[in-house]
Amino acid sequence: MASSLETIWDAVYADILAMGLTGITSANIKQQQFPYNPIAKSLSSGIFVCPEDEVLPNFGSNERMEIRYGVSITMIQASNQALGKGALGTLLTWREAIRGRYHDRLPINVAGVHRFYCEQGMTVLPGAFLKQFDASALIIRAVTYEG
C-alpha cells in the first residue's frame, strides 16, 4: 500500500499532466525526488513535481491529527541570462494556472484529503538564473486528518 504522500504526489502529477499547460508537453513534466536536471540542459523547459516535507500544525482534535502533505512544483525554462519581464512570461502563466487550480480548492479526489492550498515559493530562483535558466517554484499542500 502506498503512503499518503506518495498517493497525493501521484495524483498531483497526473493532474498537472492533464492540465494542458501552454508550451509544454507531458514528456517535460517530471516526477522525481527533487528538481534536478541531471544532464546539463537536457530539459530546456519543464516542470518538476517533487515531494516536500509535511507540516504538522499545532492544533487538532483529540481524535485526529491534521497533517499537511506537500508537493513542490518547480518550473524551468532555458534562458540566456537576459534581464527583463519578457523572459518570465511562460513561467508566470504556468504558475498562475497551477496556483489558481489548487489554492483553497479540492480540484482532484484523493482519499483522506479535504482541501488543497498553495504556499508561496520564490517567483524567481537566482541560483537557476546563474546556470542560464529562469525558474519559479511553489508548494501545493494537501490537508488531511489522520489518526
Describe this structure in words.
- The chain has 147 residues and is α+β, with helices and mostly antiparallel strands.
- It has a single domain (4-146), classed as 2-Layer Sandwich (STM4215-like), CATH 3.30.2000.10.
- It contains three helices and five strands.
- Strands 1-2-3-5-4 form a five-stranded mixed sheet.
- The mean pLDDT is 87.
Summary of the model, kept short:
This protein is of the alpha+beta class and 147 residues long.
Structural domains: how many:
1
Helix content: 10-25%
Distance between termini? 17 Å
What is the name of the CATH class? Alpha Beta
Defining key terms:
single chain, 147 residues, alpha+beta, STM4215-like, five-stranded mixed beta sheet, 3 helices, 5 strands, 33% strand
Secondary structure layout:
Elements: H1 4-18, E1 29-31, E2 45-55, E3 65-78, H2 89-102, E4 113-119, H3 126-130, E5 133-146
Parallel strand pairs: 1-2
Antiparallel strand pairs: 2-3, 3-5, 4-5
